[in-house]
Q: What sequence folds into this?
């Protein structure tokens, strides 16, 4: 469903991506751990087709229309209401009007945003805004989820909430790639793990039942930094 | 093609919705237009130079400044919550994005001009009824030209250090052909001169519009993609 | 010899030749009847004007190729050509008034060449300011290329606007020798001067280009 082959992208002399290759089949979630500056966001942007790799290629079945992007940036317009935002973003992804309204109602209910539907996004708390962001990303029922450090800036309660929601979403035939610099975030969701360091995957392996301590240890060895 | 235009309209509608929620930009532009016209009035000596000689320049300088205000906000809107990144990750074609911004900017500037023109007629006592239709035509022709280039440039300047200053500096050389043409045609219309004199200028305006709208559409992806 | 050294030699040769042209212009070329000695500035003014416009067109062409090929050398060339073009535009805009004052009595006239060069000057300044205001080198090159192409396309519109303006507002008749109508020895001086300016353009661009390339090699601080 998602494949990358020899991805290389450099910003001037800095190689953010240096020959990254992997494949993900449906139902798999790849957690990419790496320190800041390792090139994780660049990887996601190349997968999403927003950056063209200087070498290598990435393929996502269904193209951009099949991708749902969630990051700590909400992409929501503060002065528009939640429902207006959802409608706008859905139209960009080609969701037809009747399907749009139905899906919006569904997602709002599932994410507990029904009473807030007509409020401007700027009036929402950080946690609620994050839920609205997830709704935005799911309006077109994407088969691929790209999550760029989604836990940044969330307090413990909101982070737990997000973890619960993501657990529902991933699997179920979807493919997801989640990047983070913190081993605690996203570990339970992952079926595969990669450590990204200086543009390369230092280790790429199925998670295979390893617990947090083992992964943190392997991360430390691979990347040379603390994983906590 | 039709799909692209439809999506462009979705983008434009979102911009206009945002604009009318906050209303600050449109009100500022309208008030600014009125202020500039007022200042021009106090700056002139009606006994020394007949109004009709200065009128076209006054009108077009006013419209240009007001358009700058509109253009500055076009991509600034997308900086909030990094919405621009979201637009670029979505399947929205770059052409639809550019056209959407262009349409929203054109509507914005048209509203300002629709307020500015009657004010201008009022303040300077300039008779325009007999040439209203051709005058509106010229205004439309010139506006399309500089808004097209301005929309392209505004996408670039948001990433620079002094965005509000950079845009006029970059844009002004490009405004000169449509502006000079518009002023010349306006002057001839207002003074009742025969239309044959302005054919050259109208051709210039038309050619400018076609060339720069096309060029801006083609170049826009390079301002947002890497 | 490195490119910068070659550039320096070329410029040096150009400057020496320019001095030679001037000796020829002042001492050995006849004085123009109606304008007097001030007309001799024409030998610098016009070639500089031609090259400032050509430099802008070259910026545009290099920018088009850059957007297709993404080769940083094309961007460096565009940057170099723009800076040299700005310098030449400054020469035109300063020699113009120096020429104009004794002949027409005013420092500035809106004649075709000065007006077009003034617009080109603004274009160049905008281009250089944009380059200076963008921090990210990739974005800088792309934005500069976009602006460069727009600038190149604008040049014919500038000419057309100026032409239309002048046909409707005829300037007082000024006896300015136009190139083909120059009598023999004046034409020779003019042609040599044009060739010299070509050499100067090439020399300056070589130096500037070498500098731009050297800057790119320095790793990010």
A:
């Amino acid at each position: 469903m998602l494949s990358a082959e020899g991805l290389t992208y450099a910003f001037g002399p800095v190689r953010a991506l240096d020959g990254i290759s992997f494949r993900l089949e449906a139902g798999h979630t790849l957690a990419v751990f790496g320190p800041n500056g390792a090139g994780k966001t660049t990887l996601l942007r190349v997968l999403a087709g927003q950056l063209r790799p200087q070498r290598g290629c990435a393929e996502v079945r269904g193209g951009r229309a099949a991708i749902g992007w969630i990051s700590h940036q909400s992409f929501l317009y503060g002065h528009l209401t939640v429902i207006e935002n959802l409608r706008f973003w859905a139209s960009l992804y080609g969701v037809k009007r009747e399907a749009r309204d139905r899906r919006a109602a569904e997602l709002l209910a599932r994410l507990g945003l029904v009473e807030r539907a007509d409020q401007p996004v700027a009036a929402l708390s950080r946690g609620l805004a994050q839920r609205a962001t997830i709704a935005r990303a799911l309006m077109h029922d994407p088969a691929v989820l790209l999550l760029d450090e989604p836990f940044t800036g969330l307090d413990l309660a909101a982070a737990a909430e997000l973890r619960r929601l993501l657990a529902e979403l991933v699997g179920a035939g979807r493919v997801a790639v989640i990047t983070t610099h913190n081993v605690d975030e996203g570990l339970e969701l992952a079926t595969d793990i990669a450590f990204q360091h200086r543009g390369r995957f230092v280790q790429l392996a199925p998670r295979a039942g390893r617990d947090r301590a083992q992964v943190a240890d392997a991360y430390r060895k691979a990347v040379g930094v603390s994983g906590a | 093609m039709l799909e692209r235009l439809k999506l462009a309209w979705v983008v434009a509608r979102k911009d206009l919705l945002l604009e009318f929620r906050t209303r600050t930009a449109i009100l500022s532009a309208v008030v600014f237009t009125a202020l500039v016209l007022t200042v021009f009035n106090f700056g002139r000596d009606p006994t020394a130079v007949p109004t009709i000689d200065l009128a076209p320049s006054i009108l077009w300088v006013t419209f240009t400044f007001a358009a700058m205000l509109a253009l500055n906000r076009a991509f600034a809107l997308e900086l909030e919550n990094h919405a621009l990144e979201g637009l670029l990750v979505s399947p929205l074609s770059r052409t639809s994005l550019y056209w959407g911004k262009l349409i929203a900017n054109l509507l914005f500037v048209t509203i300002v001009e629709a307020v500015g023109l009657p004010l201008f007629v009022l303040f300077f006592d300039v008779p325009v009824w007999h040439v209203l239709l051709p005058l509106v035509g010229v205004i439309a022709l010139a506006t399309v030209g500089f808004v097209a280039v301005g929309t392209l440039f505004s996408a670039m300047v948001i990433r620079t250090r002094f965005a509000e200053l950079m845009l006029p500096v970059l844009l002004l050389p490009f405004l000169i052909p449509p502006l000079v043409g518009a002023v010349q045609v306006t002057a001839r219309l207002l003074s009742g001169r025969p239309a044959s004199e302005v054919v050259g200028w109208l051709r210039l305006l038309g050619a400018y519009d076609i060339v720069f709208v096309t060029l801006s559409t083609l170049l826009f992806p390079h301002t947002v993609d890497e | 010899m490195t490119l910068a050294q070659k550039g320096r030699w070329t410029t040096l040769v150009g400057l020496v030749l320019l001095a030679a042209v001037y000796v020829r212009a002042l001492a050995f070329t006849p004085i123009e009847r109606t304008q007097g000695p001030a007309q001799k500035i024409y030998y610098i003014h016009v070639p500089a004007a031609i090259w400032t416009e050509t430099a802008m067109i070259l910026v545009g062409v290099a920018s088009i190729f850059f957007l297709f090929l993404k080769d940083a050398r094309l961007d460096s060339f565009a940057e170099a050509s723009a800076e040299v073009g700005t310098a030449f535009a400054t020469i035109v805009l300063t020699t113009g008034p120096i020429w104009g004052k004794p002949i027409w009595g005013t420092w500035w006239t809106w004649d075709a060449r000065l007006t077009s060069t003034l617009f080109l000057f603004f274009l160049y300044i905008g281009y250089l300011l944009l380059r200076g205001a963008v921090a990210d080198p990739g974005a800088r090159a792309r934005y500069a290329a976009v602006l460069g192409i727009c600038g190149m396309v604008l040049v014919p519109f500038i000419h057309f606007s100026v032409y239309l303006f002048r046909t409707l507002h005829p300037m007082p008749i000024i006896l300015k020798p136009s190139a083909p109508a120059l009598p023999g020895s004046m034409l020779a001086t003019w042609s040599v001067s044009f060739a010299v300016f070509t050499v100067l353009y090439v020399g300056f661009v070589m130096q500037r280009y070498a500098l731009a390339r050297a800057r790119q090699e320095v790793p990010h601080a």
User: Anything to note?
Assistant: Helices of chain A lie at 40-47, 82-92, 97-110, 126-138, 156-169, 212-223.
